[in-house]
Amino acid sequence: MDAGWDMVWDVRDVVTAVLVLLAALMCFAAGVGLIRFPDVLSRLHAATKPQILGLMAIVADVAVTNFSLGTLTLAVAIVFFQSLTAPVSAHLVGRAAYRTDHFRRDILVVDELTPDAPRNVT
């Protein structure tokens, strides 16, 4: 019977290792994107997408490692609220950068905001 429980813990350890490595890779990708990308809009993309995916991997790891109803409820709440706040805050920062002309127009493929958002250059 002990061999069966050892197998369960081995699978959990492998899942934990994979999820933590995935989260570390996402954090590394976000850091490289923040350093390498040229303007605010590109850096926002690099900061928000891998960040939420890395957080989801870590939260999934915690839920797998310490499986209980309380942990699962907290994990769902963390992912839900982070999924709401990160894109909204990135959108607001991007909109402010656009309105104050703190981005590079030459790398913008399509500019759909020109008629809608007057820029306040201060």
Automatic annotation (TrEMBL):
Question: What PANTHER family does this protein map onto?
Answer: ANTIPORTER SUBUNIT MNHG2-RELATED (PTHR34703:SF1)
Q: Does the keyword Transmembrane helix apply?
A: yes
Extract the InterPro entries matched here: PhaG_MnhG_YufB
What is the similarity comment for this entry?
A: Belongs to the CPA3 antiporters (TC 2.A.63) subunit G family.
The protein's gene is named mnhG
Q: Which UniProt keywords apply?
A: Membrane, Transmembrane, Transmembrane helix
User: Membrane-crossing residues?
Assistant: 14-35, 55-81
Which one Pfam family would you cite for this protein? PhaG_MnhG_YufB
Q: Does the keyword NAD apply?
A: no
- This protein's name: Monovalent cation/H(+) antiporter subunit G
